[in-house]
UniProtKB/TrEMBL annotation:
Family matches, as SUPFAM superfamilies: YefM-like
InterPro entries given in the database record: phD/YefM_antitoxin, YefM-like_sf
Organism: Metallococcus carri
Family statement drawn from the similarity comment of this UniProt entry: Belongs to the phD/YefM antitoxin family.
Name this polypeptide is given: Type II toxin-antitoxin system Phd/YefM family antitoxin
PANTHER family, per database record: ANTITOXIN YAFN (PTHR33713:SF10), ANTITOXIN YAFN-RELATED (PTHR33713)
């Protein structure tokens, strides 16, 4: 959705993102420029990133390398 379109519908877009979990990609000149994400989903993404960073730190402290293939897909899905 274009940024100009989003300006007119901002309240509805925020409602969808916060209650239905739908992310809205905003386009500028036809290219992705920003995303409207509900606060709960945003926090879940931050929590997942922090968890993965912690796991990576443990492996690095042990001198181990890790690949995304070594991470359970459920972790990446936020389950």
């Amino acid at each position: 959705m274009s940024i100009n379109e989003a300006k007119v519908r901002l309240g509805a877009l925020v409602h969808v993102a916060s209650t239905e979990g739908g992310d809205v990609v905003l386009l500028e000149d036809g290219q992705p420029a920003a995303v409207i994400v509900g606060a709960q989903r945003f926090q879940a993404m931050i929590d997942l990133i922090e968890d993965l960073e912690d796991r990576l730190s443990v492996h690095e402290a042990r001198g181990e390398t890790i690949s995304l293939r070594d991470i359970d897909e459920d972790d990446l899905a936020g389950s």
